[in-house]
Amino acid sequence: MSSDHQPLDEMPSPMPVALSKYSKRVLLKTILDRTDGGLGLLDQRVVVGGWVKSSREMRKDPPPPTTQPPAAVGGDHTKEHTGGKDVKCVEVFQSRIPFLRTIIKVFGGNTGHTKEKLESIFPKQPPPSISFLQISDGSSVISLQIMVDSSIAPSTLLMPTGTCILAEGVLQKPSLQGKHTIELKAEKLLHIGIVDQDNYPLSKKSLPLARLRDCAHFRPRTTTVASVMRVRNALNHASHTFFQNQGFVHVEVPILTATDTEGLSKKFQIFTVSGKEVKREEPVSMDDTADISLETVKLSIIEKSKKIEELKRTDSNKEALDAAVHDLHKTNALAAELEARSKSKSKSKSESHKKTESLKTYDEFFTNRAFLTTSGSLHLESCASALGNVYALGPRFHADKSDSKKYLPERWMIETEIAFAELEDVMNCAEDFLKFVSHSVSENCYENLYFLSKRVDKTLIDRLQSMTSTSFEKITYDTAVEVLNKVTDKTFETKIQWGVALTEEHESYLVDEFYKKPVIIHDHPKELKPFNVRLNDDGKTVASFDVIVPKVGALIRGSQKEERLNHLTKRIKELGLRKDQYEWYLDLRKQGTVKHSGFSVTFDVMVLFATGLNDVRDVIPFLRQHGKLHN
Predict the structure, then answer these.
(1) Distance (Å, rounded) from C-alpha 618 to C-alpha 212?
(2) C-alpha span between 132 and 145 (Å, rounded)
């Protein structure tokens, strides 16, 4: 034998495919996501499981009729001999069914009643066929084709979309030409989970994403939502990897809190409910005015009135004056509401006692009022004062009834706090974080991104790659207002002026049209940011920043926190917040205070940025929004 040829018994065998450690099956991604598409695994026996995405059936040619030899004389009357094999009487009788049909048709007439009666006794067997099933187990964007003969299981049982199967068989080249590189020829089915097609929402093909929101428990079975979930997982993993690589400590912050963590934000209040139905005379107010004293509001009215008089004396623009007057009207309305509440509390003791008793059943677990947290940043500051660099990832809650496409009442946030860091330090950290996760998801989730680029947004891969290679533009709030005020070829719905929060259209113009890159806007007016952001030397702005990126706008918001006790106490008083809620927080400034900074990432919006979708309701596993809470 020539030395150029290797003996067959010395040919290397294909590498065995790895089993999933905990389910004794092969994950489809270990077959389909290989560079050779799985061809290196030909002839291997595997067990795979998944849900049918689509299917088709191919009829098999019927076998040729067999010739029956005459029965042996004197033989057993219960058997025939055909090719040396015993045939049972039932099988002989079934072979005579066509002959019996002919006899009945000739002598009994071709009546529908006779036909139905005969078929009820001898049901017609379905013709042999082969089912070709495209299944997915959630591990890959690609589906595996499985060929199942009807002798193993009837096609009517397997083909409905959503059917779950666990199959054992041999990997082979596709028996039909198509897009598949490899298929599994099933030899046995270990499990079949049938589907009620009339009640299964995914039986209809190509349901829009908006319709899928009503069946959140099934929508991960669609290719688009499954790809989004895998991208979300990759972003989660990349986020933890970044902070762990940089020496941060992961901290779990509380979801229940007695502190208004952002100040004057709409929040959910927690009650304990007994098993008995309790009638309440009036709903408990959960808005922000409950923590504001009437005296504070009256002082605010005096200050706002002085500001209006000052604007009238100067050459300030009409918009600023109108805004100040509108603000004063709102404050007067708040004062009137607080006065009305004060008067209502002075009603008869019997009515007051009745209300107290009815509400007591609802709020008896804690000694003070409890809320779902809107932010974990205050608690992270406590940990940063001991552990240095810390971060958290978890749900945050805002009782916001708006129909926003970017924010939901339950939103997932990544929050960080860095001891001994100032504003410039934390802005650099935020930029490095975004570049790291963008690169990581591009490298580790490319197949899903490629699929989404075909179905959703053609620019998403380029956008992610550009994020990793482009330096961010850093500008002050003042500069942003100046740039926007010089725009002449476009009219904004909200007129820009100093002191007004930038809207999405303002941010989009700066990022997409003017700078054409991600922008970090810093040093905002103090009225636009939370109470605990460090006041700048000018007394008007604070050390805050927003990271604005293409497609989604503001993705990260951060700041240097106020470490000076007197300044922080003054801000709490200015905003009319209850100081007793923040005594523990003020203690951090009394005992070993330190400069520190941090930022928060709206994780759901980051998934929007990476997937190209437009509505945050389509990138979370289970939807919670105003008016809807199904599961």
Answers:
(1) 9
(2) 6
